Amino acid sequence: MVILAISFGVALLDQATKYLVRANLVLGRPVEIIPGFFNLTYVRNTGAAWGIFAGLNNWLIVLSAVMLTFLVLFRRSILTDSLVHRCAAGLLIAGIVGNLVDRLRLGYVVDFLDFHWMGAARFPAFNVADMAICTGVGLYILTQLAGRPEEAPDSASAAAAPPS
Known about the structure:
Elements: H1 2-24, E1 31-34, E2 38-45, H2 57-78, H3 83-106, E3 109-117, E4 121-122, H4 128-146, H5 155-160
Antiparallel strand pairs: 1-2, 2-3, 3-4
């Protein structure tokens, strides 16, 4: 139920923010929120992260569908049933669905969160779906790096075990 709730809620938030961006911002014209650091800028991304594979929307649709199917079918093989992994799965599904809906409906992904540092360094614009995917992958990686704690013997079986 956690996976479904997160997937639905985050995908809905993603689509709502993208709708607001398309309805209220002019394509390519930044709206300064935090001077020298953060703008809202409506961008149409026909590629993947950082604009790589630009113009390959149909291939990215296929890749998204394959990854979504893989995640749904093999979730129990690659993720545990822990709350952290259920949250990660929900975020990954939401992110994939959010960007896939854009690709199918619009032919591009709406990006709008535009961070930069004093005009020198600029991070590519992104959206809520991108944040969900990155957070889901990050949670998964952190749990893998932390390792799985070994199961501690319970006190009853430890007391009954003969001394070595």
